[in-house]
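Please, does this match?
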Amino acid sequence: MTYLQLSAVFLAVAALAAVALCVGARRTPHLGALTLAALALLVLTAVFDTVMIATGLFHYAPSQLAGVHIGLAPLEDFAYPLAGVLLLPALWTALRARRSRTHTAADREEHA
């Protein structure tokens, strides 16, 4: 399995999990905020991965890479920050919705 295939599977699982977590939530993560977070993380990934690769902290088997690089960072490295942008806000939304439902149910029991 190439790094690109692994990244694609990882992103697909993250996207499906994010959708599943947000189903039924009254409020979903704001698209503008997600876009800004994604851009910031992509820039940071490009900079810091380039530095880490240049200093020899790690390397990739060239035969397993797609061959597209941003700086020294291979394209496949950018899947993980994107997955974080998908999963973390979705998890936050799901936990807030759960907390809201719990408090609403407790309030109803108090007033009953």
Notes: The longest strand covers residues 69-70.
